[in-house]
Design goal:
By secondary structure, the protein is an alpha+beta fold. It has a single domain, classed as Double Stranded RNA Binding Domain (2-Layer Sandwich), CATH 3.30.160. It is built from four helices and four strands.
Length: 97
């Protein structure tokens, strides 16, 4: 389920750390105290296969705290990071060219 500004404003601390997924590898981590941090998850395709290799090639990058970094900015930064990650464009489009 994609996030919206309305949904973001309604998020309250629950006393537990949680993560809310958005789209394209973007998620919002909410701390126990309610600090909200954007993170982008992406995969580096270094060749080879298998689930262990896929898990080993996953990376997470912090993009900043909400509301300092808006939803639109976080989405844009996520796409920029994924474009720079080797092999990501091929896996996104499904083609090998």
């Amino acid at each position: 389920m994609a996030l919206s500004d309305t949904k973001l404003r309604a998020i309250r601390p629950t006393g537990k750390r949680r993560e809310i997924a958005d789209q394209n590898g973007l998620s919002l981590r909410v701390s126990q105290r309610g600090v909200m941090t954007w993170t982008a998850t992406f995969r580096l395709n270094k060749g080879g296969g298998g689930s262990a290799a896929s898990a080993a090639n996953r990376r997470r990058m912090a993009l900043g705290e909400y509301p300092t970094v808006s939803l639109a900015e976080a989405r844009q930064r996520t796409l920029e990071i994924k474009r720079m990650a080797p092999g990501w464009g091929r896996s996104l489009s499904g083609s090998s060219s």
